[in-house]
Amino acid sequence: MDKNIIKQHGLSDEEYKAILKYLGREPNLVELGIFSVMWSEHCSYKSSRVHLKKFPTTGPQVICGPGENAGIVDIGDGQAIVFKMESHNHPSFIEPYQGAATGVGGILRDVFTMGARPIALLDSLRFGAANHAKTPQLVNGVVAGIAGYGNCMGIPTVGGEVYFDESYNGNILVNVMCVGLVKKHQIFRAKASGVGNPVIYVGSKTGRDGIHGATMASDVFDEGSEEKRPTVQVGDPFTEKLLLEACLELMQSAQGRKDVVGIQDMGAAGLTSSSVEMAGRGGVGFEMDLAKVPLRETGMTPYEIMLSESQERMLLVAKKGSEKRIKAFFEKWDLDSEVIGTVVKGGQLSLKVGDELVADLPTIPLTEKAPLYKRPIKKPAWQEKIQELDLATIPLLKDWQEPLLKLLASPSLASKQWVYRQFDHMVGIDTVMIPGGDAAVLRLKGTHKGIAMTTDCNSRYCYLDPFEGGKMAVAEAARNLVCVGAKPLAATDCLNFGNPEKPEIMWQFEQAVLGIAEACRVLGTPIVSGNVSLYNETKGEAIYPTPTIGMVGLLENVEDHCQLGFQQEGDLVVLLGELSEELGGSEYLKVIHGLTRGLPPRVSLDLEKRVQQLCLAGIHAHLIGSAHDCSEGGLAVALAESCFPRELGVEVQIGF
Amino acid sequence: MKVNVYVTLKQGVLDPQGKAVGHALDTLGFKNVANVRIGKLIELEIAAKNKTQAKEEVKEMCEKLLANTVIESYQFEIE
Amino acid sequence: MKVNVYVTLKQGVLDPQGKAVGHALDTLGFKNVANVRIGKLIELEIAAKNKTQAKEEVKEMCEKLLANTVIESYQFEIE
Amino acid sequence: MKIGIVVFPGSNCDRDCFHVLKTLKQDVRYLWHKNATFPKMDALVLPGGFSYGDYLRTGAIARFSPIMKEVVRFAKGGGKVLGICNGFQVLTETGLLPGVLMRNEGLKFICESVPLEVVNYQTPFTTAYGARSSVQIPIAHMDGNYFADDETLRRLEGEGQVVFRYLNNPNGSARNIAGICSKKGNILGMMPHPERCAEDVLGNQDGRKLFESLIG
Q: Dihedral sign, CA of A503, A504, A507, A512?
């Protein structure tokens, strides 16, 4: 195999040698393509897997942890919550509308492939500086894409966050989270089994969309990225709505539960990752005939069919003999469904076109035995320097009115109503607390319960101290859920970092993971799913480390939900927890003095837990009328934000 | 001068609208229709010294705003 | 036979999209542009015995589905 | 009361209307768009959503679903038909109600609760409001900009066919029209979503009275 074809596929020399060992021969182009996407950073997590093991992932409430398409948490009365977060950073920079839209489409499929009906979407967005030339066009495209897809699907987009910082000028972040609801006995897994069972392709036809989307996600952005425009994936929310309804009707029917053995969505690396992963999990092999795959374009090669990332497609393994019954569900919704292969003994994926064999690969080396790297780690030389902050050098302002107004008007802190007004956040008529509060709250029809959800991360803190920043992201997510009256249950994550081949970036990654792990342990919120997005870097400069945390909480009685705004005159305003002089990495320093320096606030997890428990108890005892966490902008901004909803004022004595 | 700009999706790019309209025409009994693609027609008037200068400007408008050159291509006529 | 259908808003019907595009072009520095109108270009292929029969069918398609004759007018070319 | 909710591919608010009518103890069922006929019904609901992805024009394709011939016959025969958001758009495409819903003036999708005036409280859908009153009902649409020629607008106003009006116009609709009914009053099309404010837990019940009027 020619040297630079291998390089073009993003495979290192050692990786290619390993392929030769596993195959016992040279791979052909189709096989090389399959190895390259399965061993890409995006699919194999080869640089991060060794660290992800440090997360706590179990607990009495956890039904399914990392490793499946989404995490599942038990909420009692035979119901469970399915949720996950995914990133679509690179495609959204190239084509903002379609990049963001297909990000929504992908995360929705990860949830309903497990049998759950998606009930909410959240989006965590990070753009460059508001006055950067490209920012307005990227913001309009991404917001319109999320609205276009989510609204058409009829899934409410109920929360999230939008930040602006020059660190993202060349590499925006689009993290999308989906939450679904399922009855515990209707959960489906992505595991194939039963030799002779049919492998069924359902959904849209296959085209040449986004070929190498998976490896592209692992590519560094540089000047050439404008030209290196792979055919970006284009989403069709209408077809996905049909796919959602058809799949749920099948999976929720008594016969369907017996017929369907395993199901997985075709995400990054399309037919390749879904077939290889399902077969690998079940310890079986797949024999597939690519001539049977429904195609949208003529003359597609096996290579293109296997690597295409056309959207709105699922792969299903069913019981032998149930093919007709299953096809009827998809015909009702005018969707393609074709038997394209069968489950076979052994662990080989063998691909044919008619009866010509075009690829024959072992599945285990593509999944479990994918390369695992312990990348070199080195604390950055500049870390100490940026942590230095001598408050004496910061001029003490005489007038505090002006800076507070400037903070409240700064792009990251200002109201995001202009964004979430474009999202249908009420369809489904479950949204009890609409966007704008600390967390979204949805009621669960037929029960008294409520589900709260939020996404959080302060990437400036993570840049200044990744360990404390990681702890803070988890603590803040839990705090937001508690402020609306919910008990935090479990978390998902989207770990957005720079180039893992640089020791400084791996140091940031390891420290953040350690911080997140410790906070999850102490606060009792295990990580049940997640995603890693690396190579977020432009011209050698990495973004701030951004480990976004998505968290879900439970309200036993949704009537106990708590608002952010002050309720009535005469109420007392109480500060729970300690106020210490921690200005490091604060919004004040950045917006008013243009400084990004100092150590971020230290979270004492034990104190955090007790403050949260006290706040939750106060809310449930109806002693607390409203609650709001102090985050960016500190106490002053938190007090201001609490005044807005009911246009009330507040008088505060600052003790010293 | 009157200008007509035609913005269409590039070949190979999925056209969900075209797919849906094609399906609808079929169910309405127009069985002999294929390959339906939906694009944009932008009509505008431009004051320019001569046709070549107008052509230059319209081209620049398409590149900068009227077409998303990642997934769309454009043509235009100047009367 | 290749068919191009042009669906445009009738005169006098408000065109918010045209207005917005006109405004955007202005802010980008194209000061000599006026009267921007946004319409649809529908491309399709039709198998018909001859041009007149094709014309008949395309006209019917426009009347029935492709244009909302309350606010839109249509033209088409058959190559 | 037997109420049928028509489900097109892409309808989203069918489940929401079903839930609200169930809480009002009604005999409600879904009617799949591919069925050319449906059992005897007292009223029909065309729900909100993105039928056929809103491709080409909102409601343009749904109008040709097999069930629509029967829906038109039912409506012309005096049967009560409620079209909400996308449902209103389908009713205008079929000609059961005049005018067109065009792209919002601001070109963006808008989802928020807006103040409306109940202009005609004598239709089968608004008797429970009892008087000319203002209510707060959510809207969620990209194409809610109602348009009709002046002659039609004059007729709608003159014949009392304007049922709901925006108090501060969010999308550019002519005469601030948010909802209109047919001459006989048995067909109502409205862009706001009454099913989104019909239960106490959601903190606003202004939409409940519309369903209470319907089931009479």
A: negative
